[in-house]
Amino acid sequence: MKVRFWGTRGSIPVSITAKDVRAKIAAALRAARDRAQPIGDDAGIERFIDSLGFAVSGTYGGHSSCVEIETGAEDTGNEHLLCDMGSGARAFGQRMMERYGPARPQTYHVFMSHVHWDHIMGFPFFTPVYIPGNRIVIHGCHAELEHAFKRQQAAPSFPVDFSLLASTIEFDVMAPGDTRHVAGVTATTLKQHHGGDSYGWRFERAGKSVVYSTDSEHRLENAEETKVFVDFFRNADLVIFDAMYSLADAISVKADWGHSSNIVGVELCQMAGARRLCMIHHEPAYDDKRIDSVLAETRRFEEITRGDSALEVLSAWDGLEIVL
Amino acid sequence: MELSSTQIGAITVVAPKGRIDHAQAPLFQQAMQSHVAACTQEGSPLLLDFSGVDYISSVGLRSLMLIARSVGAQKGKVAIAALQPTVREVFEISRFHLVLKVHDTVDAGVAALGTAA
Ligand SMILES: [Zn+2]
Ligand SMILES: [Zn+2]
Asked: Do B59 and A220 touch (CB under 8 A)?
């Protein structure tokens, strides 16, 4: 399986500003000026860019939650798997249109954590919904699943009503704990703490497993509850985890806001024996430098608390691909 | 949970020992109860001597949050001192150094709690 991140920001999309770009250029030029050796040819430029660190040479990006899971299954036809329809779904839709055009209909299976705006806002900009022949199946555990998508596109909030979308759109309202077999992948759900509830997803195929657990607050007082999550994360090759806040914030001023911390992410993954933790739903107020330093701290925390096996810690950015 | 307490002037110094992990945290919190209750505006300021604590988990940190909150509600004073290096790192990574005032040594903690208005 391959996981591709199209939207990694929490709560609301953000963009880097002219000031941010200028600071990155200035940092790069300072690093170039201070070098003893000339940068040299184009390959040298690429090496130099890589040496700058991601917070200078790249950006974590600003689209809200949208994660693609490429199953690698060959016998499943033109089926695609997606977690959530945040603003990142627009870019994903563009890619699909470039690849398949309007003449080759595709099926998109969307697994919804919940229906807060930041997780549905990309849907009206997901071009495949306007193309006849495409099929979009929206899986989720909220009774209001269909209502939330339709309301978002109703007047006076959007110019194109849901009823005018030319693709075939189906809603699959599941009971928590239900399983679906889609495109060679088995998908199971788990209810999470979040305003109006949210659901985590676990995808398995050919001995590999990915957990998508966003917008989930872990209340640490209940050991039974912790065990349920540890079992859900058990031996996962990748756990995609909402680490929006620091632990101190998550259990004090931002308690009941429905999000978790890097510390709890590492602990749950360690207890579950997961191989990789990838943090998402980045706080919109954080710039690239801040997210980078949270990543460095989280890696250090993993190192301090490591048991028998190491946990690889990553921080998601729009465009990141992880091969399992 | 092993927990020793001494009185240095007006200040109660409580020293837990070992790991405050998911299993030990409730016991730690329970053992702290009487000290927390006594830590009022007129009562004894409380200093946690963490020199004997070599690990603290998120649940342990949550216990500290609850202690800080209870003491705050009673207008008492609480601080923490003598963190082992890795525990200190965990404090910084979890931003708990913003929740509880951290002192390098017990002496420094006692001095600060003794003089603070
Ligand atoms: Zn969200
Ligand atoms: Zn939400």
From this structure: yes
Distance from Cα A114 to the centre of ligand 2, integer Å: 7
Task: Of B3, B96, B6, give the one whose Cα is nearest residue B44.
Answer: B6
Whether the predicted interface score ipTM is above 0.90: yes
Which tens digit of pLDDT belongs to each residue from A78-114? 999 999 999 999 999 999 999 999 999 999 999 999 9
- For A95, A226, A311, A313, B90, the CA distances from A308, given in Å and listed in that order, are 41, 21, 10, 16, 19
CA of A257 to the centre of ligand 2 (A): 9
Question: Which residues have a Cβ under 8 Å from the Cβ of A283 and sit 6 or more positions away?
Answer: A10, A11, A244, A245
**Contact residues, chain A, for B55 at CB < 8 Å:** 305
Domain edges within chain B: 2-115
Q: Compute how many other C-beta atoms are within 10 angstroms of the C-beta atom of residue B86.
A: 16
Among candidate residues A69, A68, A58, the one with its CA nearest the CA of residue A27: A58
C-alpha A304/C-alpha A277 separation (Å) is 16
- Nearest-CA neighbor of A317 among A6, A11, A107? A6
Bridge pairing between strands A135-140 and A168-173: parallel
Tens digits of per-residue pLDDT, A227-236?
999 999 999 9
Contacts B93 to A, Cβ<8 Å? 262-263, 297-298, 300-301
DSSP for A254-285 reads TTTSS--BHHHHHHHHHHHT-SEEEEESB-TT
Give me B29's structure tokens.
Answer: 């919190």
Averaged pLDDT for residues B102-113:
97
DSSP B18-87: EEE-TTTHHHHHHHHHHHHHH-SSSS--EEEE-TTEEEE-HHHHHHHHHHHHHHHHTT--EEEE---HHH
Class of domain B2-115: alpha beta
Q: Is A176 within 8 Å of A189 (Cβ atoms)?
A: yes
pLDDT-derived band at A323, boundaries 50, 70, 90: very high
pLDDT band at A76 (very low <50, low <70, confident <90, very high): low
Task: For the domain covering A2-14+59-323, report its CATH number.
Answer: 3.60.15.10
